[in-house]
Amino acid sequence: MSFLVATAFLVSGSIPANAANPGCIYTPTLDKTRAAPELSLGNFVTAKSWQWQPGSDAESASLSSLGAKVSVVSGNLRDITLGVLHMGIPRSQDLRVMTDSSPKTVAAINGDYFDGSGPWNAMVESGQVSYSPPGQTEVFGLTRKKVSEPYGYRSTGIMTIGTRKFALTGVNQLEPGPNSLVLYKSSFIRPVTPKGATTLLIKGGKLVKIYPKGATLSSKSGHVIQVKGTLAALAAKMKINSKVKFAIPVAPAYEERIAADTITTYGNVSSASNTLNIDSVNYTNLGPGATLFDSSFKDTPRAGRATLRIMPDATGKLIIKNIYKTGASIKVDNGGFIIQARSSLAASVANKFKVGDSVSVSRSYQAEGKSDFITAAGRGPRIVQGGKMIWICAQHNKEHRPRTAIGWNQDGQIWFVTSSRGLMAYDFGYRQGGSTSSQMAQWLLELGATDAILLDGGSSTALYIDHPEEGPRLKRIDIPDTSWVRDLANGFSIERKN
After folding, report:
1. Which of 120, 308, 381, 408 has the fewest CB within 10 Å, making it most exposed?
2. 201 sits in which H/E element
3. DSSP secondary structure of 57-68
4. Beta strand pairing status for 290-294 and 280-281?
5. Is there a single domain that holds both residue 197 and residue 276?
């Protein structure tokens, strides 16, 4: 039954031309006539693309006259995980080179907006802030979410109707995926369930009613099964009064999910008698207070008004080795830290430490939405939230450009999506073609995403896959692989779990 969690690239009919958002440009559907053959990349990850040719073909679809190609890679957190790619701060590098450092990578997409100082937003790796400018930053990534049955979770349970077995994909999920079979119990947090393509009502261990076109039912009416995607037609053919049994494992305490949030970094360096607060990590320009640098920073930090050099001793304790009371630009020792105090207040606190002091160094973040990130990096604005497009076209540029976005849903499905010209072109460093941001939002809704964000676009847009017939390096699919590339500050990856 593993096909139940594979990506569904089914087109569910045409999408209205943004009727609720009249400022948007019409969005053509991802119809079968324009689709290239789907590629299986292993671990139930798939890649697919749609192409509109330059000229009237693209113009009649309200796309760039230079042509448009929509490329999509999708997988599920049951089989893959989400990673962040970079070659150290503040270095920029070809995205394909970044993937070489991560052999589990199945697909990679460009990441955050950036400049010569590094990414615009924070990064979290293995649960710890690895980079952060001062203040609030917008991030997206993999979280550790505490499971609450009323709010739903992914499932590996089995439902048996008569003699036929079905793999459940979720329990009480608020937003089921496009190819799902979800059980709703009386514990569901809402009074009625979401609507599936087919709905089954089970009472007293028997299938008592089938809604072949789907229905929203009271969560107290019995066990409700909502089916979407490939199994909906089969579920509609089950026999009334068939016996139904469930074999559902105990709900996990936590599960991995995708989330977008706003975070603020904080931390400190503390001795027995002194504490210096930090407001940024590995940030080239230095924060307004004090900035922490560790050995993942590949350049020499700028000097602040005062500088602390911290190194571990033979027992692993962190010790103040040097204090530069007027600041110093020095590299970080392996396993050590450099603290650059930029403000006069932070410098006065830094200068209260003494050489030889034993210190502790902490860094963490506060997330507005309380997300517990395992891995995260910077993002652009949200374009889809709660199953609805939230991009206000009247407030934004409607230019057709290469775009990059990531979508996801509660079932753990994730979509890497790019729009580009799709063809080789001598464009002298300025990528053209592609789509509007609102068109990206509509395509993600069509694919089944309930939430989505934009990433850096234009010349940064890039999508690579571990092509099953080529290698050993990943192949670019948004435009021809021989096209010129732009060095990037970071990227996101879909990685094999095993």
Report:
1. 381
2. strand 198-203
3. HHHTTTS-TT-E
4. parallel
5. no
**Does residue 75 register a pLDDT over 80?**
yes
Task: Report CA-CA distances (Å) from 460 to 38, 94, 351, 396.
Answer: 25, 10, 43, 19
Residues 117 and 164 placed together within one structural domain of the fold: no
CB 226, CB 174: distance < 8 Å: no
How far, in Å, CA of 201 to CA of 198, rounded?
Answer: 10
Contacts of 52 (CB under 8 A, 6+ apart): 28, 34, 58, 61, 63, 67, 68, 69
Alpha-carbon span 434 to 419, nearest angstrom = 5
Q: What is the residue type of 105?
A: T
Instruction: Give 365's contacts (C-beta < 8 A, 6+ positions apart).
Output: 122, 124, 129, 132, 263, 264, 265, 266, 373
Asked if residue 130 belongs to a domain, the reply is: no
Confidence at 429, pLDDT banded by 50, 70, 90:
low
Q: Tell me, what's the pLDDT at 174?
A: 93
- Asked if the structure places residue 131 within a domain, the reply is no
The better pLDDT of the pair 366, 497 is held by 366
* Residue 81 · residue 497 · CB < 8 Å: yes
Task: Name the residue type at position 163.
Answer: T
Indicate whether 259 belongs to any domain: no
Please report, for the domain that includes residue 269, its CATH number: 2.60.120
Task: List the one residue out of 167, 164, 122, 440 whose CA is nearest residue 282.
Answer: 122
Whole-number Å distance between alpha carbons of 353 and 270: 9
Our count of domains for the chain comes to: 3
Q: Can you give the residue range of the structural domain that contains 308?
A: 265-366
Asked if residue 274 and residue 210 are part of one domain, the reply reads: no
Q: From 366, 400, 418, give the residue that closes a domain.
A: 366
Q: Tokens in use for 202?
A: 């089970």
Q: Is residue 128 part of a domain?
A: no
One-letter amino acid identity for 69?
K
Note the residue count of the chain: 498
Is the model's pLDDT at 333 over the cut of 60? yes
Rounded (5°) CA angle 36-41-44: 105
Residues 6+ apart with CB under 8 A from 21: 389, 391, 392, 393, 438
Q: Which secondary-structure segment (H or E) carries 430?
A: none
Gap between the Cα atoms of 282 and 25, Å rounded: 41
Shared domain for 329 and 389, answered yes or no, is no
